[in-house]
């Protein structure tokens, strides 16, 4: 389903096609994360992760996760991911990407140890460079 080619694989989960368009442009302009996938369904992504727990070639390295989506919101996604997290054969860095500047959302994101950061939309080249560089240091 998500087949990637190198170790810098990024998966964006967002129900807004414009956000995907912006991210694609930024990724192309920066030359980072050439292996990207853009999906609108968090539930399908959870099923995919569950089916590929030990298949590191299929799993993303980074997930950009929108908070508000129709099928499952970020908190539901993260709660289900938490159950899988211990069994995943490689670390996946999750970044919440939202237009919300709600302090409660930002605090809640810190309760999940695998969430690396809470990022406020719109994405920028600087944010993508930081994510890429953080992965390179890991």
Report on the architecture of this protein.
This protein has 138 residues and is an alpha/beta fold. The protein contains 5 helices and 5 strands. The protein has a 5-stranded parallel β-sheet, covered by helices on one side. Helix 2 packs parallel to helix 3. The chain is globular, with a radius of gyration of 14 Å. InterPro entries: CheY-like_superfamily, Sig_transdc_resp-reg_receiver, TCS_response_regulator. This is Response regulator.
Assembly classification: single chain
pLDDT average, as an integer? 88
Strands ordered across the widest β-sheet? 2-1-3-4-5
The shape is: globular
Spans where pLDDT lies below 50 across 5 or more residues: 1-6
**Beta-strand level of the residues, as a percent range?**
15-25%
Protein name: Response regulator
Organism: Mucilaginibacter defluvii
Keywords: Phosphoprotein
Per-chain topology:
Blueprint lengths: L8 E5 L3 H14 L4 E5 L2 H10 L10 E5 L7 H12 L7 E6 L4 H7 L5 E6 L4 H13 L1
Parallel strand pairs: 1-2, 1-3, 3-4, 4-5
Helix pairs in contact: 2-3
Pfam family, one: Response_reg
Protein name: Response regulator
Keywords: Phosphoprotein
